[in-house]
């Protein structure tokens, strides 16, 4: 391997631009050498923002670039499984944004191919695991400080988006449980060490964004999952927050509890708008998880360079898709 890991990114949309800038300028040991997008405007952005990076219009051209050692997929979720397979079969390492796929069968196809390419790293982008607060909670659970965890309450709220980006995004995102709640699903399964879900229920609303009904999606999702151990996880995931971006988790154990993400702020200022209050600095997930995205990229580069296993396995990503699909299918509104 070269001194720096040579990475090519595919997808330069809302999140792809952020990953590209991180990989180009902020991740030690990484060198962004190529970027691909089918959208001309995004390629023009790359020419301006990523000097010296080779620019392609799609994954096949980028895969043919022999200098690329690892591929970063930040493309619509409906493409993830096939593109991850294509990257592995081209002999390169792969990072794929969450979720790995919208159906378990597609995750299984990826796992089959990955088993045949064991020398290549494959990792899915559940970046919240790299957030210092969630990582600390996991450390305390593993150290036994909480005793037996019996309830995890998760809340992930996106601020109201007057442009309705997510309504356009919904047909390829898989809906609120696969697109948004999947972060909390992955975290709960991680915190509970892969505990088996034995009972689920889900409901939701689409009162603010009725157009989501066309693809069976909702603007607020609520779910309860009971695990074999008796632990219960509750999820509330929303696209309609009046108080800005929020991602919180409250864990209760037999010895202690821990709250994550509540009251987090960069500027100690409490704002009020449309009847709500929010802490400055949490307008979107980029601000809340900026450091986590960087730590995630560092972990990928470090794992490739050291030959260690993926810090976030495809098997875990499969389990997250499995539970998210079951919640999606349980949703009857
Ligand atoms: P987006 O729609 O803004 O960007 C998608 C990109 O994929 C665009 O650059 C588009 O040109 C490109 N693209 C479309 N078809 C393509 C094809 N056939 N070949 C190559 N490129 C193609 O979407 P966004 O918000 O950037 O999301 C992308 C992925 O990132 C999704 O899977 C989403 O779930 C994930 N995501 C993860 C987040 C996280 O918290 N980890 C947050 C936001 C998104």
Describe the 3D structure.
The chain contains 11 helices and 14 strands. Helices cover 37% and strands 26% of the residues. The protein has 2 domains: 147 residues, NAD(P)-binding Rossmann-like Domain (Rossmann fold); 171 residues, Dihydrodipicolinate Reductase, domain 2 (2-Layer Sandwich). The chain starts with a strand and ends with a helix. α1 links the parallel β1 and β2. The protein has 333 residues and is of the alpha/beta class. 1,4-dihydronicotinamide adenine dinucleotide (NAI) binds next to loops.
Summarize the model shown.
The protein has 333 residues and is an alpha/beta fold. It has helices at residues 16-25, 40-49, 59-64, 80-89, 104-116, 132-142, 165-173, 176-179, 181-191, 285-306, 314-330, and strands at residues 5-10, 30-36, 54-56, 70-73, 93-97, 122-125, 149-159, 197-205, 220-227, 232-241, 246-253, 257-260, 270-273, 276-279.
Radius of gyration: 20 Å
The amount of beta strand, in percent, is 25-35%
Order of helices and strands: EHEHEHEHEHEHEHHHEEEEEEEHH
Low-confidence stretches: none
Residue-averaged pLDDT, rounded? 93
Number of domains: 2
At CATH level 2, the architecture of the largest domain is: 2-Layer Sandwich
Sheet with the most strands: spatial strand order: 3-2-1-4-5-6
How many alpha or pi helices?
11
SS-based class: alpha/beta
Number of strands: 14
* Major beta-sheet overview: 6 strands, parallel
Can you tell me the CATH superfamily of the largest domain? Dihydrodipicolinate Reductase, domain 2
Regarding CATH, which class of the largest domain?
A: Alpha Beta
Give the names of the bound compounds: 1,4-dihydronicotinamide adenine dinucleotide
CATH topology of the largest domain: Dihydrodipicolinate Reductase, domain 2
Task: Give the overall form.
Answer: globular
**Fraction of residues in helices?**
25-40%
User: Separation of termini?
Assistant: 52 Å
């Amino acid at each position: 391997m070269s001194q720096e890991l040579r990475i090519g990114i595919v997808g330069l949309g809302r999140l792809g631009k952020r990953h590209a800038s991180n990989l180009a300028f902020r991740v030690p040991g990484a060198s962004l050498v190529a970027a691909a997008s089918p959208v001309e405007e995004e390629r023009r952005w790359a020419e301006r923002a990523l000097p010296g990076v080779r620019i392609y219009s799609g994954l096949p051209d980028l895969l043919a670039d022999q200098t690329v050692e690892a591929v970063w997929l930040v493309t619509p979720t409906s493409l993830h499984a096939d593109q991850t397979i294509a990257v592995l079969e081209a002999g390169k390492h792969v990072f794929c944004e969450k979720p790995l796929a919208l159906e378990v069968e597609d995750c299984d196809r990826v796992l089959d191919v990955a088993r045949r390419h064991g020398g290549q790293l494959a990792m899915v982008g559940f970046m919240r695991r790299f957030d210092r607060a969630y990582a600390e909670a996991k450390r305390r659970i593993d150290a036994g400080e909480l005793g037996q965890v019996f309830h995890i309450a998760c809340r992930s709220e996106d601020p109201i988006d007057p442009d309705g980006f997510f309504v356009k995004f919904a047909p390829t995102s898989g809906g609120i449980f696969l697109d948004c709640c999947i972060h909390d699903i992955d975290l709960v399964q991680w915190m509970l060490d892969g505990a088996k879900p034995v009972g689920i229920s889900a409901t939701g609303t689409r009162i603010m964004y009725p157009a989501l009904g066309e693809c069976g999606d909702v603007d607020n999702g609520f779910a309860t999952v009971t695990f074999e151990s008796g632990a219960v996880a509750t999820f509330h995931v929303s696209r309609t927050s009046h108080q800005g971006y929020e991602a919180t988790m409250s864990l209760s154990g037999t010895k202690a509890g821990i709250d994550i993400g509540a009251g987090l702020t960069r500027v100690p200022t409490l704002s009020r708008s449309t009847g709500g209050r929010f802490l400055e600095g949490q307008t979107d997930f980029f601000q809340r998880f900026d450091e986590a995205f960087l730590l995630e990229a560092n972990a990928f580069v470090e794992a490739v360079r050291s030959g260690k296993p993926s810090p976030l396995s495809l098997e875990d990503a499969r389990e997250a898709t499995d539970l998210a699909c079951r919640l999606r299918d349980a949703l009857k509104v």
